[in-house]
Specification:
By secondary structure, the chain is of the alpha+beta class. Helix content is 69%, strand content 8%. The chain has a four-stranded antiparallel β-sheet. Helix 2 crosses helix 8 (213-245), helix 6 packs across helix 8 and helix 6 (156-198) crosses helix 9 (258-285). The protein starts with a helix and ends with a helix.
C-alpha cells in the first residue's frame, strides 16, 4: 500500500472513530465563518451604496454678482485646471430659472425677465478619488483662489458622516476577523487535541518504532484542513441557498466574486491545518 493511500485510510478511520468531535468542530466553524460571510456581504453592500451616493456628489460654485457674463468662460477655464475637476457646467440665470420652474412646477419669476434675481453658478463634477473630505477641502481651497467666485456648496456634513460610518464598518470588520481567526484556531486545535488524546498510546508506540513525526501528524493536519475548508464552503452554500429563497427587490445585495470566495475557503482550510498543528504540539513534544 502506498503512503498516500495509507494516509487517506487513516484520515477516514479517524473521522469515523471521532465522528462526534469532527461534527461539533464542523458546526462551530461553519457558524463562525457564516457570521463573517454575512458581515462581508453587508460591508460590500454598504460600500456599493456609499459609492453610488458619492457618484451623485456635485460641487456648486456661485459667481459674484459683480462679474460680467463675458468673463464666465475664462473663469470656467481656470476652474477646469484645478486637480480633481473633470467637468464644469455653467448654470446661467435663465437655466437656473428653468430648473426652479421644473422643481416647483410653475415659473415663479414671471415678469422678471429683465431683472432675473437668480445667481449664476458652476456645477462641478469631480473625480472618484477626490470624493472624500480631505480631497474636497483641498479642492475648495483651490477654488477660493480664483477671483470672481463667491460661495462653494457641497454636502460637507453628509460626506464627513459617511466617511466616519465607513471607518466604523472597517474597524468592526477588523475586530470580527481577529475574533473569528482566534475562534477557528481554538476550535480546530481543541478538535485535534481530543482526537489525538484518544490515540495517545498508539501515537507514542509508533514514535518508538521509528515512525516520523510528519508521517504521524499528516492525517490529523489533513483532517483539520478538510473540516475547515468544508465549513467555509458550507457557510457559503447556506448563504446562496437562502439567496434563492429570499428576494430583496429593493436592495442590491453585493456578493464577493467567485475568486474571492475560493480564496477565502482556501485560506480557511489552511487556517485549519495551522490550528491542527497547534493541537499536535504537545503530542509531538512528548
Amino acid at each position: 500500500m502506498s503512503r498516500a493511500a495509507h494516509t487517506a485510510m487513516r484520515v477516514g478511520r479517524n473521522l469515523r472513530h471521532n465522528a462526534g468531535t469532527a461534527a461539533a468542530s464542523l458546526l462551530s466553524l461553519t457558524l463562525l465563518f457564516l457570521l463573517f460571510d454575512f458581515f462581508w456581504i453587508a460591508a460590500g453592500t454598504a460600500d456599493r451604496f456609499y459609492r453610488d451616493l458619492l457618484s451623485e456628489l456635485r460641487v456648486e460654485v456661485f459667481v459674484d454678482e459683480a462679474v460680467s457674463d463675458s468673463t464666465l468662460t475664462g473663469i470656467a477655464d481656470w476652474v477646469m485646471q484645478i486637480d480633481g475637476v473633470i467637468n464644469c457646467e455653467l448654470i446661467s440665470r435663465d437655466l437656473a430659472r428653468q430648473r426652479l420652474a421644473d422643481m416647483v412646477g410653475t415659473d415663479l419669476l414671471v415678469g422678471y425677465e429683465q431683472t432675473n434675481p437668480l445667481p449664476r453658478s458652476y456645477m462641478l463634477t469631480v473625480q472618484d478619488d477626490f470624493r472624500n473630505g480631505a480631497a474636497m477641502a483641498k479642492l475648495e481651497q483651490g477654488l477660493r483662489t480664483i477671483a470672481g467666485l463667491s460661495e462653494i456648496h457641497y454636502s460637507r456634513e453628509w460626506l464627513d458622516k459617511a466617511e466616519r460610518a465607513k471607518e466604523v464598518i472597517f474597524q468592526i470588520g477588523l475586530v470580527l476577523g481577529v475574533l473569528i481567526f482566534a475562534g477557528a484556531l481554538v476550535s480546530s486545535a481543541n478538535n485535534i487535541r481530543l482526537m489525538t488524546r484518544a490515540q495517545a498510546v498508539g501515537f507514542r508506540q509508533m514514535l518508538l518504532l521509528g515512525a516520523g513525526r510528519v508521517f504521524l501528524s499528516l492525517p490529523f493536519l489533513i483532517e483539520s484542513f478538510l473540516i475547515s475548508g468544508v465549513a467555509a464552503l458550507l457557510g457559503w452554500a447556506l448563504i446562496f441557498y437562502g439567496r434563492t429563497r429570499i428576494g430583496l427587490a429593493q436592495i442590491d445585495i453585493v456578493f464577493p466574486s467567485t475568486n474571492e470566495i475560493a480564496l477565502f475557503c482556501a485560506g480557511a482550510a489552511l487556517l485549519g491545518a495551522v490550528s491542527g498543528l497547534l493541537g499536535l504540539r504537545k503530542m509531538l513534544r512528548d
